[in-house]
Amino acid sequence: MGEIKENPPKLDLNAKWDACLDLGVRRFVYSSFVGAFSGLLLFRSPVTRWASVAFGAGVGIGSAYTECSYKFDGSPAKFTTTKISDTPASPDEQD
């Protein structure tokens, strides 16, 4: 009879935006805390302490932006780990 064609999975933009917003807020807060902690340990001047907080926040926002751009473009993340089964065996192990 007739073939039933399945529609491709719907791109759920709301879920992607929610995931990216969550990722952005988390990385912003966590890296700001790391910047504040390292500023307290390493610097004495309040200006340099605030600069380390700002640097940490920038690193967090930048990494979240990169990860979200991979999610929206559909390309795999740049730094993915390979599975053990994907790596070819060396000639010594094939025997």
Automatic annotation (TrEMBL):
InterPro entries xrefs: Mic10
Cellular localization per UniProt: Mitochondrion inner membrane
Biased composition (Polar residues): 78-88
One cellular component (GO) term of this entry: MICOS complex
Region (Disordered): 76-95
Membrane topology: Single-pass membrane protein
Protein keywords: Membrane, Mitochondrion, Mitochondrion inner membrane, Transmembrane, Transmembrane helix
Family designation: Belongs to the MICOS complex subunit Mic10 family.
Job description of the protein: Component of the MICOS complex, a large protein complex of the mitochondrial inner membrane that plays crucial roles in the maintenance of crista junctions, inner membrane architecture, and formation of contact sites to the outer membrane.
Protein name (Swiss-Prot/TrEMBL): MICOS complex subunit like
Organism: Actinidia chinensis var. chinensis
